[in-house]
Specification:
The complex is a heterodimer. By secondary structure, chain A is an all-alpha fold. Helices cover about 75% and strands about 0% of the residues of chain A. Chain A is built from 6 helices and no strands. The longest helix of chain A is centred in the N-terminal third of the chain and has 17 residues, at about 10-30. Chain B has helices spanning about 15-25, 45-55, 70-85, 100, 110-125, 160-170, 180-200, 220-235, 240-245, 250-260, 265-270, 275-280, 285-300, 315-325, 325-330; strands at about 5-10, 30-35, 60, 90-95, 130-135, 140-145, 155-160, 175, 205-210, 215, 280-285, 305. In chain B, the strands form 3 sheets. An 8-stranded parallel beta sheet of chain B has the order 3-2-1-12-9-8-7-4, covered by helices on one side. The longest helix of chain B has 18 residues, at about 220-235. The chains are: A mainly alpha, B alpha/beta. The interface of A and B includes residues 24, 43 and 48 of A.
Chain lengths: ~100, ~325
């Protein structure tokens, strides 16, 4: 499943909190070397022209965060947001 | 109206620094300064990426030095950036940190002359003509670019000592004063005025910039905690005359220097006193920071730079500054 479809599974009221947490994970990650160059450009292009709270932006952010901080991302989805199905979909997409 | 700038140290992957640069532009900052140290990511690759992803923020190295980067290469880099982001580029030039330069095998002597020479070469080469210049530190003979630079680029000089401050007032379009306390700004403005007068300029011709150590959070203790490591390094690097100006115990300052030299960071950071915090950083809640910024404005600054660490969480602190600090002075 693609990240745009995964984002549609996330309730709208939980997207802002998720976006905030994912940005923290991404900007504080020590796994910078795992970030593909193309994904870094995609991340910056999205930030330049939009936000990370709408569907498009959150999909970009979720994909980037899943690459550098998969465990933290899925744990937050599962334990804090109680979105086990989304966490499972992210794991599969990142595999 | 006062301008707000922000400083970033490109110590992490470029996309993080550029994220913060774009955020700063979106949140109302006027200027962006990227530090230039050989042991971090390159300042000009970071600025080039910034040029691509931003559209209005003014940016430049804050600061480079002529010892490690030859002034010709600095001019080439800035002229090239000015093609990417026309009219948005400024130069920040200082004498460099002697300790850091020493680790590269460079002995930074005649610092004032080196900066004066570098700026003379910079301005002349931006004219796009063949340049011959005989300075006491740098000389060029018939040097020219194979392209036409867009024109002059504002020059800010990083200054702390009296001669450099006066020189900055005399030949600079701006002065970057590494200080967070009105006493230091008062002193600096006095020196700058002498240079301005000597050049027959007006003070309004010079962007007097406080390049501060800054940390903001809704909980003051969190802001202070984030700032104390930066303050420890500032204390360790400050000459005694500046420590005495703020009534700081020289023995305590030596203790911090010793701890840092041994790599005992916990000991060094733990030795930072409230007086040191007061002297060398602006840290606290937005209201506390606003009060301190107001005092710097009264001392004569025209640009306020939010320097490291910005806050315990840089992204959230930028948002906080945008919501509760910048509007306090601009609306």
């Amino acid at each position: 499943m693609g990240y745009k479809k995964i984002v549609k599974m996330i309730p709208v009221e939980k997207r802002e909190e998720l976006s905030d947490k994912l940005l923290n994970y991404l900007l504080k990650t020590k796994n910078e070397k795992n970030m593909p160059s193309s994904m870094a450009k995609c991340f910056l292009s999205q930030w330049q022209t939009g936000t990370f709270e709408d569907e498009t932006g959150l999909a970009v952010l979720l994909e980037a965060t899943a690459v550098v901080e998969l465990e933290k991302t899925t744990e937050f989805l599962e334990k804090d947001l109680h979105l086990a199905d989304v966490a499972k979909a992210v794991k599969e997409a990142a595999a | 109206m006062v301008k707000f700038g922000i400083e970033f140290v490109p110590k992490e992957a470029y996309w993080k620094t550029v994220y913060y640069a774009v955020q700063s532009e979106k949140r109302g900052f006027d200027n962006l300064w990227i530090t230039d140290h050989y042991n971090n990511r390159n300042v000009y690759t970071t600025l080039a990426a910034t040029a691509i992803y931003t559209k209005k923020i003014v940016f430049g190295p804050g600061v480079t030095n002529p010892f490690l980067i030859n002034p010709i290469m600095t001019t080439q880099s800035l002229a090239s950036l000015d093609e990417m982001a026309p009219g948005r580029v400024v130069l920040g030039m200082g004498a460099g940190d002697k300790t850091t330069l020493a680790s590269t095998g460079i002995e930074a002597t005649k610092q004032l002359s080196a900066v004066v020479d570098a700026i003379a070469i910079f301005k002349a080469m931006l004219e796009g003509k063949s340049v011959t210049y005989e300075g006491s530190v740098f000389q060029v003979k018939g040097t020219r670019f194979n392209f036409k630079p867009r024109g002059q680029i504002p020059v800010y000089i990083g200054a702390q000592g009296p001669k450099m401050l006066a020189t900055a007032g005399k030949i600079g379009d701006g002065v970057l004063i590494n200080a967070s306390h009105p006493k230091d700004i008062d002193y600096a403005v006095g020196q700058i005025k002498m240079g301005v007068k000597e050049a027959g300029k007006k003070m309004s011709d010079v962007d007097v910039t406080a390049y501060t150590s800054f940390s903001v959070h809704k909980k003051p203790e969190k802001a202070m905690e984030a700032a104390s490591p930066v303050v420890a390094f500032i204390v360790a690097g400050s000459p005694n005359v500046i420590l005495e100006r703020h009534g700081i115990d020289l023995v305590k300052a030596d203790k911090i220097r010793g701890a840092l030299a041994k790599g005992d960071f916990g000991g060094a950071f733990g030795s930072v006193s409230p007086k040191m915090m007061e002297a060398f950083c602006i840290a606290g809640t937005p209201d506390m920071c606003n009060e301190k910024i107001s005092r710097l404005l009264k001392a004569g600054i025209t640009q306020f730079v939010v320097g490291s660490p910005v806050g315990p969480n840089v992204r959230q602190s930028i948002d906080l500054i945008s919501e509760l600090v910048i509007p306090h002075f601009k609306e």
